[in-house]
Structure formats: structure tokens, C-alpha cells
Amino acid sequence: xxxxxxxxxxxxxxxxxxxxxxxxxxxxxxxxxxxxxxxxxxxxxxxxxxxxxxxxxxxxxxxxxxxxxxxxxxxxxxxxxxxxxxxxxxxxxxxxxxxxxxxxxxxxxxxxxxxxxxxxxxxxxxxxxxxxxxxxxxxxxxxxxxxxxxxxxxxxxxxxxxxxxxxxxxxxxxxxxxxxxxxxxxxxxxxxxxxxxxxxxxxxxxxxxxxxxxxxxxxxxxxxxxxxxxxxxxxxxxxxxxxxxxxxxxxxxxxxxxxxxxxxxxxxxxxxxxxxxxxxxxxxxxxxxxxxxxxxxxxxxxxxxxxxxxxxxxxxxxxxxxxxxxxxxxxxxxxxxxxxxxxxxxxxxxxxxxxxxxxxxxxxxxxxxxxxxxxxxxxxxxxxxxxxxxxxxxxxxxxxxxxxxxxxxxxxxxxxxxxxxxxxxxxxxxxxxxxxxxxxxxxxxxxxxxxxxxxxxxxxxxxxxxxxxxxxxxxxxxxxxxxxxxxxxxxxxxxxxxxxxxxxxxxxxxxxxxxxxxxxxxxxxxxxxxxxxxxxxxxxxxxxxxxxxxxxxxxxxxxxxxxxxxxxxxxxxxxxxxxxxxxxxxxxxxxxxxxxxxxxxxxxxxxxxxxxxxxxxxxxxxxxxxxxxxxxxxxxxxxxxxxxxxxxxxxxx
Length: 653
Fold this sequence. Notes:
The chain is of the alpha/beta class. The chain is built from 26 helices and 24 strands. Among the domains are: about 220 residues, Cobalamin-binding domain (Rossmann fold, 3-Layer(aba) Sandwich), CATH 3.40.50.280; about 70 residues, no CATH class. Helix 18 crosses helix 20, helix 21 packs parallel to helix 23 and helix 24 packs antiparallel against helix 25.
């Protein structure tokens, strides 16, 4: 389908003139290229604002160097400026776990690096505040969301105050922003100012305490905010005392995973950061309405002739739900999207599939039907009253909550309905599958049978040769720190996978992901991982090193060396040498690594592990070689090439 320039949100002054606009209500700056698709946050927020009758322009990847003309080309907005650093935290986007600069950016035309600054939200905000000090500024997106409180920053190894203090923003919208943005627009349309919206849900703001005798509690009461308030330890206290920082994080995480949350306040110097509770999770109808907005589902025409890798990756995929109740220690999803899953209706999903199929370039294959965890569609607590009382960060650890409905029947229905469409040749599941949810035994034999049926349906009809799952480690002790299930469950699932492959005469591979250097993981654990993966016939080409990102449990452990829930010390691999000592065990089969590993094991007086790891002829037989990079792109397999190599080697012998 061909689209006109006016089908997109305007990105230049010329596009405003084509529409006959001399000004706009909101100018939205984004660190990403503008892709008008519901998987790209800036496009979603722009379309939500537009749906309320406001004029909105988007400035993708503004030039923050030079004369800042990109920040002035749309003129002064009638309502406010808005900023999102993009779909990724800008520091994660720029740097690897070893703090090396990445050579590409998936959210930029042709993958070109360097089109956004480090800490993009702060950089953009300072420029806007300098140019337009009297225009309200609203910040949001994952970078702002996960930096709303004081936090540890891995990239400069320091403890940072709330991003509100560093940007001077008038309002921060955290989490998935459709509901608060819509409420903000409606209030301002009725004459409210930004300050009048401080009683809104799911926002943060900075209160300057002019009167030293006035407390933050009195201030909130005077402004009509009567919700219960929890005052966190101040930024200065957390920065000075790691035990205080860890205990404060525990409070934040528990409060952020409740259905009925309280206002959280944190003193920064003489000021206070105030963060209000989030809105209740979106309903299916509300989420469907977002996908009904008039997205073109295409990159802006200004990128003609260029590719945007992130768009190419999701172009033929359909997002079915949001949220994840897994609560993994290293994951930011529950602190941004939330642990309460919100699912689209089957009708909404089928409508989007038909829309994709109308594209002349569609070949009949869907690359993914999924979400943060592919198989949590339509899963929620059976008794919501129990959920309302709960503050568990994870509904899956230490075991799947008995109140959680883990019935895969709606997912089976959705897969089969999509596959029944005449426009679909094959639908694949590219998102990660939670095998612990698939394997979970409930009190209902009917649900257990359905879940076993789901496993067969998934493996038989929806695997593109490789099924991605994430055991993350083999050590149950480390997995406990990660809030992941025992590795024995992965082995059970692999047996199921192999059995179904054999019965269906399929030649497919299961692709496990592993993390090195996670808090709690010691070199000896990595040595055992190498032995276990060897036993299972896996060889890993690349791995994901743990990267501390703001507002995760694992990052707080990395920063403090403490478990926030017990305040007991925990081992952390901090230095580059510590990380390499762990990473090397993924490559035990490489001669240059095996020598180093043997020397290391001798040094720590564990030659018995070397004997177990290197016993026998490692070159015999065929192994699955799985490449997993630190952005978790699709793996590459070299089984045929390696088999040919060893066959040739044996013939020479």
C-alpha cells in the first residue's frame, strides 16, 4: 500500500506547511529514527496525542552538536516539548558489556552509529531548556523510566540522582505511557497546567522545597494529594551507604510490583522527587485501541533507499501482549512494562495479520507471534483479590504461583486461527519461550494436557529450525540469584523437544542462552556450566555478558555487593579480568582458551574439573555450535561446516 507524506506525523517545517499548520501543540524529540509502527514508542505516543485532536510533530535523532537548528525548526509548541531517548537506553545502545563502543545502531538508518548522544534524554533536555526555558518539558521512554529514582550507572561507575534532577524536566512519565499521556492531554485541553497535573498517576516530578520548615508530606497534602506516601532514603544517604542503597532498592521493587501502590518520594539535596503510583493495567480493549491508531507501519519516506535494522527485524511480526511476570533479576521489563500481562484480543491480532498480508512484499511468513515472553498470552492471576495483596516481584520464582493461570489454551487458539488464514503459509515464534511455564504442573489435568499439546504445537509447527529458550545458567545456586528455575527443568524440556522432533521426523535445534558474570556467579560455576553444556552437546560461539542496567535487582547487587533482600554479601565479578575469567569457559573447545582454562584451574587447585572438562577426544562427533551475541540476535549454526571439518580430519588420520 502506498502512503502519502501526510499519512505520517510531520518531521520538518515543510511537512507542517503541506498540512497548512503554522504551529503544533507538541514537539516530540526521539533518539530513534521515525518508524510509524506500534512497536516504536515515539510513534505510539505521537499517535495517542494526535487522537486527542492535538497537532504533534516528531523530530527523530536531532543533531545535538552544531547550532541546534533541529531543536528550533518546529518552533515553539503551544503545549509542551516531549523527549524519548528511544526504544533502548542510550548507553546500552552505545556500549557493550565491556564498555566498548558498538559499531552500529539498529534504530538508525543503515545501522549507522553515533546518531544520538550518550544519555540522550539529559542532552536533549539541556538544549531545550536553554532555548525555551519557559516551555514545559515532559520526558519519558525506557531511559527516563528506569532512571526515575537514584540509581547506579555502570558506564561511569557512579551513583546518579534521579534523571528529573539532571534534566530539569517538568514531568516524567514512566512505564508504558499511553494512559498518562492521554490523561495529560485531556487535562491540559481543559485548561490545566503541567503543575496542575501533579496528582496524576504514573508520573514523576521534582518539588523545590522553598520553606525549610515545610515537609514533603505537608506539601502533598496542601496540593490535594492524600494518597499514602513512602519516603525513601535520600539520594545522599544511598550514595554514601551501600547497605542503605540496597534496602532502598528493595522497597522500590516491592512497591513497583504491587497492584495498589503508594506514592514514593526521595530527597535530593533540598528538593524532593515525587513518583505517583501507576495506572491500573490496560484492559484488552484499551490495548486493542492503541493498535487501531492510524499507523502506516512503515519508516518515514525520508529514509527511502535506506534500511532500519530494528524495523526489518519486526516488520513481519505481531506483538500479542505486554508485560512479564517472570521477574528475572537482570531484566527491566517488570519495572517498565510491569509484571501484569495485558493481552490483545484475537480479533485485533487477526486484523493486524491481514494488514501485514496486504503488503505486496509479504511472502506469507510471520517471523513472530509473541511478546516479552512468548507464551504468557492471556495469563493472569485467577483470584485478583489475592493479586491485590501480593508484592512478589516474580510470579514464577521460586516456583510458579498457584494463583497464576498458566493455561495455554488461548495461545493455541490464537496460533491456529492465524495459521488458518489463507494469507499465512507459516507463523513462527521468535520471542523467547518460558519453558518453566510450559512444564509447570497444575492441579488441573485438563490444563496439563493443554500445555503438553501446546508444546507439541509449538515444536511441530512454529519453530524455524531453532527454538530460543533461556536457562541462563546451569548452577541452581546462581539461577536462584537470577530468579530462574532449576536447570533440571531445562533438561526435561529438552527431552520433550527431542522426543517430539523424533516423532515428527524433524531436524530442529533448541538454542539455549547463557549469561556470564552475573552477580553470585563465580568462575567455578562457569566451569561446571562448560562441563554441563559439553555433556548436552552444545558449544557456544558467543555469549551474553551481564550488563548492569539501571533499576534491576542484579544491578543493585553488582553495585553494592549485597543481596537487597537479605543484605548479605554476594560475589560480584567486577574487573575486566574477572569477567574474562568467566567468559573463557564458554569456549573450552577452542585450543587457545583450553590452555588458559587449564592454567586457571591449576591455579585454584581444581585439576579435577579440567580432567572432567577435557577428558576424551573433544573433536569426535558432531556438536551444535550456537552463536549468541550480547544483543541476543538470532543465533548462527555451523553444524554442517564443523562436521565436514572433522570428517576431513578423521580421513587424514
